[in-house]
Q: What sequence folds into this?
């Protein structure tokens, strides 16, 4: 599985502290290597969407779109609980 990150998500990730940035990067790499076995991750499918999932790391939410034809996980939004779902 490939891991793709949008420019906006990468920009938000770069603004985080080094501790939070490392935590997010480690969790995404673990998910990339473990997919499709998502047991042990706090990940759920968003209602009303086709292939969009939410990964929770504390107060931070990461929105991921699964692209099966490219075998890729596309991270398109990273943010805090109140703002991330407004896409």
A:
């Amino acid at each position: 599985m490939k891991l793709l990150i949008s420019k906006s998500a990468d920009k938000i990730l770069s603004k985080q502290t080094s501790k939070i940035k490392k935590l997010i990067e480690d969790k995404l790499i673990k998910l990339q290597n473990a997919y499709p076995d998502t047991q042990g991750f706090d990940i759920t499918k968003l209602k009303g969407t086709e292939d969009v999932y939410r990964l929770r790391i504390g107060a931070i939410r990461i929105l991921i779109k699964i692209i099966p034809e490219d075998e890729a996980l596309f991270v398109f939004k990273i943010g805090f609980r109140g703002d991330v779902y407004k896409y």
Notes: The chain has two helices and five strands. The mean pLDDT is 88. Residues 2-80 form a domain with the YaeB-like fold fold (CATH 3.30.2310.20). The radius of gyration is 12 Å.
